[in-house]
Amino acid sequence: MQVLYHISIRHKLTMIIMIIVTISLLLSSLAFITSDRLYTQKNVGDNLRIMADMIAANSTAAILFGDSTAAAETLGFLGAQNNIESGVIYDVDHEIFARYSKTGNTELLPDSTAHDENLLFWDDHVDLFTNINYQGEVIGNIYLRSDLQAARDRLAWFLGIVLAVLAGSLLVAYKMISGMQHIITAPLLRLSAIARCISTERNYSLRVQGSGKDELGTLIHDFNAMLDEIQMRDEQLKDHRHELEQRVAQRTNELEQANRQLASSKEQAESVAKRMEYHAHHDALTGLPNRVLLNDRLHSELSHACRDQSMLAVLFLDLDRFKLINDSLGHATGDQLLRIVSGRLKNCLRDGDTVARLGGDEFMVLLPRISSSSDAGRISNKIIEELSQSCSCNGHDLHITTSVGISIYPHDGTDTETLIKHADISMYRAKELGRNKVAYFTQEMNLSSRRRLALETSLRKALANNQLKLFYQPIIDLARNRIAGVEALLRWELPGSGFVSPRDFIPIAEESGLIAPIGEWVLRSAFAQLHEWHTSGFPDLTIAVNLSSVQLSRSGFANILESALIDSGITPACVELEVTENVAMKNIESTSATLHKLKKMGVTIAMDDFGTGYSSLSCLRQLPIDSVKLDKSFVCEIPENKEDTLIAQAIIAMTGSLNMSLVVEGIENVKQLNFFRQQGCTLAQGYLFSKPVTADAMLELLHNQTIPGSLNLVNN
Ligand code: C2E
Ligand code: MG
Ligand code: MG
Description:
716 residues; 3 domains; rod-shaped; TIM Barrel; 5-stranded antiparallel sheet; single chain
């Protein structure tokens, strides 16, 4: 049976049909042969009976008469019958009466008693027994034996025909099946071919042709319906896949975009971080390292120097009178100058050196691995020389100088703070030496700071012991050649040591808080003195009193001033309070508020040492300033110094436009006086007229009005 699974439908069909045809034919043949056999047997039986009846009729008389010969003759006609093998006539006693045998063989004759009237079919012959009746009585029996050769021949013939018909039928059936089986197999083969094509090409638009109503037609229809479904699903799938691909592409795109954005954000963040890092460590204006970066580098260079036992120098640079340029010629010029200075500084240095801007006009240079301290001096002088070259800024030809302080590792300090502090101290020393100078740090400088401590102690005693004094310097009204007012200047007379400069002890007084009682003492003494002069015949005389930042920032100062005014009995209008730029600019808002309060009391306010501090000209507008005192440092080289001349002219013009009066400080010679007179200045102060003097000497000056400068001026 397994074989059946492996053969084609065509062959299966052929085989099935052939089997059916064969069986049908065989059954038909069998039926036909059987019926024919029965018919033949009946014929044979009937013939035998007829013959027996004839024999019986013809032999009755012979039996009755016992004439066996006549009976044998009657049997003789059996010889004409081909199929009769033998015939016997028995008498009433069942004895053979007469017989006939085709072959003469009598052995085959049955016993007459053995058979009743009967017709018996055997394989190869037929036996007939019948009675011979006469007048209702059995007078004998007849036995006939016929062979079945004719029936067998007929059967053989029929079998031959059956086989021939069978063979012919099978052949015809095979031919027909072969010809017709494609009706079944062709659609199946088409179905199979389409199915194979679809499975290999994935072309679901293919359809199987066929429109029969039979099972194959239904199969094809269902198959096509299934293909419709598959095609629809395939198209949906394609659509979905297409949609999915589009989504994936879109998502990929978005992801790529997000990645790009992320990368660019990262870049931006990095660049912002870099910029922030840069700004945190560099000066915005010049691009030089700032104090933070310098400290870092100094720190790491110090550890190298410590390890290598090498020397290192820290240079502290401060541009001389830079603020003045900044304020008078504008910030743009100042900024440009700072950039030029930065460039020049870098040009003076080696690769491993660092130049940093600490702010304003302060720079610091770090010189690691120097072989001797003289290297630092050499480089400092190179810097001074380089910076002293004139430079062109915004159309101005400027000359700038610088003061340099040097501290050396390990001599002057072993840590960053000490080295910077000592370089700073040295720089101030360089300034004291007359600017544009280099100063190495010495321990004496440190001593001077210790001296400050001693001074503080002494100052306390001085206040208690009345060792403080006021000197007065006249302020000249150039138009009238008269003393318009006086400036009270504090003096501290140390027994045996002379006078200590207020520039030395005022900062100590400020730091120690002594400035409050000292300041109040100054106010009361100066007002009392002015009142005395007023009553001595100089009622128009005014007095200028210097204020410290500490005094001004104290909340009770206005009350102290008011009380001093009331106690002295002078009018507030005679009093001018001098504040320095640095004081005013420290906290411009609260200073402005305080100054407004003081002004309301009737006093006037002057901006002292203008040009040396950190304010800009525009800041003046924010403060209730009545007059400006041009610092003597701009005056001393006038008119020779072109820059100073320019600056002075700018300040004069500015105060004029702001409706402020201007006092020129530090006039020491007639040239200076003439210059400022020509510039229209009306108030001046300086050694040319008088140094600060005692109250008595001042009274004498007031009486005499012998003012050398004024006389000279008159003479000129
Ligand atoms: P300042 O207020 O600018 O005072 C003018 C200074 O210039 C005075 O120095 C004066 O002696 C000096 N001077 C005047 N004319 C000339 C000149 O022609 N040539 C030169 N080279 N110098 C001249 P002084 O008395 O040593 O005072 C220095 C500073 O100390 C004052 O500068 C002021 O800021 C401060 N000061 C003085 N007295 C007091 C005070 O009572 N209280 C406070 N807080 N500060 C004071
Ligand atoms: Mg002053
Ligand atoms: Mg001054």
